[in-house]
User: Fold this.
Amino acid sequence: MLLCDGGGSNSSNYYIFKEDLQKLATEIGIEIRVANYPPYTSKFNPIEHRLFPHMTRACQGAIFTSIELVKSLIEKTSTKTGLSVVVNLMDKVYAKGREVADGFKENLPIIFDEYLPKWNYRAIPQNN
Assistant:
């Protein structure tokens, strides 16, 4: 189950995310359920309240001079309840302007829920 913000650049309307999610579900062979927070409601996302303030405090007063410094500061983040942060740097250049594959929207293998289908859906592994 993925809880995703649903506004701005993370819009739940983007099919490129759904296509990549479908590929992942097929690759790993498990169903992936997605629930998007409606636009402008990320304040209800528990991660934003449980983790981000602690990350902000860990970086307070630091001048970011390198990626390694930011990584080390964020890795030191923890909470009283035992939540800790794992940081993985992805040194990858992402393609701009990617388009959804031909026929993906027409043959959409994503299954939308009956309740709030715009924001709740499942990617079911496909047999190729």
